[in-house]
Amino acid sequence: METTASHPASQTESLGIRLRNIAIGALFALVLLVPKLLRIRRDPRSWTAFRILLGIAGAALVVLPLAFWNSWLAAIAGLAMFLTAALLPSAKPDTQIDEKAKELGVLVVVNGGKYNPGTGPASSVQLFVGADNIWALNSHLHPLLVIPTSGISSVHAEETTNGWVVRVRCTDRIGEFFYTGIFAEHLARVAESTIRSVMPSALPIFPRSRAAGA
């Protein structure tokens, strides 16, 4: 009797673990898709095509489960998808950021989390990453920190008790950018990889030949 009772319990536990892993995987996939969806939403044509596909998929989830296997959860998810496709308009382009990026001649703009300049409270910043400099600009597009890329020695993203932090080490300072929330790790990793892409690469060191040493 005990063996029979423990067997369904173990099956229930394994099913719970599988559902948890599926939920974590779906959440991680959603985190990776968010920046792509935001870029698509800024393009009216791409966003219109995406809304049409989303609406068709949502309508299918509403109709097919009710007609064949009577799944109310799938119907609710389909209804949410259909309403999202019908009601969510395309995003208005942020002309101020685009104009500032062109003015500075930067390559890309990424989320910089929050930066504390040391003279006041921490402010949300955007990192304008260029080939020669990285600007940390606040919501008013005022520079709080300018980092020459030639002076960057290392950049590292790591988890803290309150979220994630990206530390940029230079010859005379350390810039720290703090991220909180459910997308903290993703945003920190994006900032880290973007800054690494403009860091100066170290020159290779070749061993001296005997002839040269002589």
Search tags:
4-stranded antiparallel beta sheet, extended, alpha+beta, PH-domain like, 3-stranded antiparallel beta sheet
Strand order of the largest sheet: 1-2-3-4
User: How would the global form be characterised?
Assistant: extended
CATH architecture of the largest domain: Roll
Number of domains: 2
Helix and strand element order = HHHHEEEEEEEHH
Unreliable spans are: none
Major beta sheet, specifics?
A: 4 strands, antiparallel
Total count of helical runs of at least 4 residues: 6
Portion of residues in beta strands equals: 15-25%
Instruction: Name the helicity range.
Output: 40-55%
CATH class annotation of the largest domain:
Mainly Beta
Helix and strand composition category: alpha+beta
Write down the Rg: 25 Å
**The CATH fourth-level homologous superfamily of the largest domain:** Pleckstrin-homology domain (PH domain)/Phosphotyrosine-binding domain (PTB)
Number of strands: 7
CATH fold-level topology of the largest domain: PH-domain like
* Averaged pLDDT: 75
Describe this structure as you would to a colleague:
- It is a single chain.
- The chain is of the alpha+beta class and 214 residues long.
- It has two domains: 2-87, no CATH class; 95-198, Roll (PH-domain like), CATH 2.30.29.30.
- 51% of the residues lie in helices and 22% in strands.
- It has six helices and seven strands, in the order ααααβββββββαα.
- It has helices spanning 2-41, 44-67, 72-87, 95-104, 184-198, 210-213, and strands spanning 108-115, 123-129, 133-137, 143-148, 152-159, 164-170, 174-179.
- It has a four-stranded antiparallel β-sheet. Strands 5-6-7 form a three-stranded antiparallel β-sheet, covered by helices on one side.
- β1 (108-115) and β2 form a beta hairpin.
- The mean pLDDT is 75.
